[in-house]
Design goal:
Blueprint lengths: L6 H15 L11 H25 L8 H12 L12 E7 L8 E3 L4 E4 L9 E4 L3 E3 L3 E8 L13 E4 L9 E3 L13 H14 L5 H9 L6 E15 L4 E17 L7 H12 L7 E6 L1 E13 L6 H6 L2 H12 L9 H12 L7 E8 L10 E10 L1
Helix pairs in contact: 1-2, 4-5, 5-6, 8-9
Length: about 375
């Protein structure tokens, strides 16, 4: 039982028990002594049950909420399992100038760049994370949003103002890629997923732990690790010769992607830091951005007139299109798009075995299966029914 019975249910249980044990007590009319006693007992029993259930729910991750959920996580696993704060977006900007006549220009750590102010006079501000020196006409730098939250996930080419004065006034700034990783403080549902990911990551240097550590970085949606055995030989630099017999070491390529199917160098740096906490001694892990592979998917559908959503789907198939989008977005890095599997997945939700709203679902675009390399992440392009 996960919720308290109603007061009336407890009243009826008590009444039945009295009638079985003392059949001569028949007056349960409103205001009778039996009615008053049963009503009082039922109310008290309901309140006690609610209190016990409330305390019981707080002992399980799936039912605890708010500060109780955070206390449960930190009490079991330590402070590292506290609810993550709002996260700041990160990314790469490029500083450029028409020529290098002004000489070398040092761009200090903490240099502020920002987007053009909007109609309300507000802009998103970012700071450089390390000092870089421009010796030519172009140099890139990692930046982080000043303020945490999703507002920092600005689009490509929107950062174009240098707030901090530089020694060369001809320098301009821009971001070729979008900023990512900015997030609000996690709600309970998101926090539960974070707890599960952290639990997986503490297993040590297993494939699942490495991937979980990568996904613990705000902004990383998918992570897939591939292990290779590399044959090496020790090299004596002083003697300029190899030493001993060849041997094998583990080499891991970790492909990561944000919601756009790629990852910036700034995100990759954060993943490297997270993965280093679970990496085994002697294991080299190379973090690499996935390559986005856009899939355009159009399907021909046949609605079931007897289906529960027929009236809605007859004029608007957004619900089915959203299922198609979710199917592709859930792909791990490297997974192929197989038409038969995709059709079966949609029919499992909307076909006879699901809601029974569809009698047929057939892919028209693409015309065949789409294969992906181990570093490619499928993302949605044009998704439609027709």
């Amino acid at each position: 039982m996960t919720q308290a019975r109603s007061q009336q249910e407890y009243y009826d249980i008590g009444k039945n028990q009295i009638q079985v044990t003392v059949p001569e007590l028949t007056d349960f009319n409103d205001g009778s002594i039996n009615d008053i006693i049963l009503g009082t007992v039922a109310t008290l029993t309901q309140e006690v049950t609610r209190l016990l259930l409330d305390r019981f729910k707080k002992t399980y991750f799936n039912s605890a909420e708010g500060t109780d959920l955070e206390y449960l996580a930190t009490d079991h696993f330590g402070d590292g399992f506290a609810r993550p704060d709002a996260q700041k977006a990160v990314g790469i900007v490029t500083f450029s100038r028409p020529n290098d006549l002004a000489g070398d220009c040092t761009i200090l750590e903490g240099t502020i760049v920002k987007t053009t102010a909007d109609a309300n006079g507000e802009s998103q501000r970012f700071e450089t994370l390390s000092e870089v020196t421009m010796t030519g006409t172009e140099i890139s730098a990692s930046v982080r949003a000043i303020t945490a939250g999703v507002a920092g996930n600005v689009s490509a080419t929107t950062i174009n103002v240098i707030e901090t004065a530089l020694t060369d006034a001809t320098i301009t700034v821009s971001n070729t890629g979008a900023m990512s990783g900015g997030a609000a403080e996690e709600d309970d549902a998101e926090y539960r997923e974070t707890i599960k990911t952290l639990i997986t990551s503490v297993r040590g240097s297993t494939k699942s732990a490495i991937e979980a550590a990568a996904k613990s970085v705000s902004g990383i949606e998918k992570a897939t690790a591939h292990e290779f055995q590399v044959t090496v030989k020790e090299w004596d630099a002083g003697a300029g010769a190899t030493v001993g017999e060849s041997f094998e070491i583990a080499n891991v390529k970790l492909y990561v992607a944000d919601v756009n199917g790629v990852a910036s160098d700034a995100l990759i740096d954060l993943v490297d830091d997270a993965v280093d906490e679970v990496r085994a001694v002697g294991v080299r892990i190379e973090t690499i951005s996935a390559v986005a592979s856009t899939i355009n998917w159009t399907a021909s559908i046949t609605l079931n007139p007897a289906g529960p959503n027929y009236a809605t789907l007859q004029s608007d198939t957004t619900l089915i299109v959203n299922s198609m989008i979710d199917y592709i977005e859930d792909f791990p890095i490297g997974q192929d798009f197989v038409r038969a599997d995709a059709e079966a997945a949609i029919l499992a939700t909307w076909g006879p075995a699901g809601t029974n709203d569809l009698t047929d679902f057939s892919t028209t675009i693409p015309s065949g299966d789409i294969s992906h390399a181990s570093n490619e992440k499928a993302i949605t392009g044009t998704i439609a029914t027709g």
